[in-house]
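Protein modeling request. Please complete all fields; requests missing the sequence field cannot be processed.
Requester role: graduate student
Desired output: 3D structure, token encoding
Chains: 1
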Amino acid sequence: MNEFITVYSAEIMRRLRSRIFIVGILIGAVGIGALIKLPVYMDSLVGQANRVALAGDAALISQAAPLLRKDYHVVRTIPGKTAVLASDLSDANKISAIIVLRRSGHNVNVIVYARDPGNISVSSLRRDLLPISLQIATGLSRTDLGRAMKVPVTVRAINSKFGTAAQANDARIIAYIMLFSLYILIMINSQLIMSSVAEEKTSRIAEMLVASVNPSALLSGKIAASATLAVIQMIIWIAIGFLLGAHPGAPAALEAADSSRATTFSLSSVSSADLAGFAAFFLLGYLQVSTMFAAVGSLVNRTEDLGALAGPLVIPIVAAFLIAMTALAAPDTPVVIITSFVPLIAPFVMFARIVVSDVPAWQVMLSLAINIAATWGIAVLAGKIYRVGMLLYGRPPKLAQIWSVIRS
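Delivered output (408 residues):
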């Protein structure tokens, strides 16, 4: 135990004093801030592409302008103009298209002169202008037509964790932020452990360490220290993500299904039980992956060989992240339920299920039990591989040697 504490504290202090660790936290914080604010910037670009002017029949323009503002930014109206020249769409006018509206019998004739035709959605134009077309065709007043088109729709939750669509949307947003943080932290820190182990072996520091410290205590101390620092990084990054995202002006992608709601989201959509589940599955996933990476790192005699060995280990982590993304939308599909018990994948998938649905308690407990047992098994197996890998310098251990050690 004393050896473990010594290795743990030494590794913690070494990483905390490292400029790379501090810079990594800062870069990660900036990166998360950029990812949250990037959609706002991209939305502004889309808004520029949707700047249009309305021309043609003055009566139709007055009716169409409010309707088209749902999908377009109407910046000018030019009543009476039907002939459009290239100069009308010059950069100085900051208009991407001119929509000419004319009445043709019992219908509306629409001609769009666009700088980039790909930015104009014909279906959205038809949908927006449908009330005008119906009014002309039926002769109904605007009031009667508006009343007929307002179909009352009420959404009631049945066997759902959430009472409203807004709450469900908030939970998915927060779950996505947490899953993304989980993925990044596990990938980065596990590969750092792998590189650290490989560096110690190739520099022959491992010979002195193994001579004075029990290999199992050395491995467990390294992983525990890295897990502690990963939790610190996670708390900082997620806190920054919430601070930047939970206020007006958040990205349009974070809006709820109810478009009338402000672009805000609340942490109240995620309960303390959800956060506890995230912490538990984060630690399990991190310990499983980092232990595997450390064991593989001990088998490397040249640091340039790390990529070849790390590749296969990354595959289940990427698969877990992709399945978790599916779980946010469809948490009760058979594949999602089954994979929420599978080690390496469950830490991602089960957490996604917990946040967006009411997972039976027995399933959560069974997944925890399976993954705790898997973590213990991986630790025992990795400890044996680490021991033989660190003691053999200059040549990689043969498969027969590894198999013999595993069986012992």
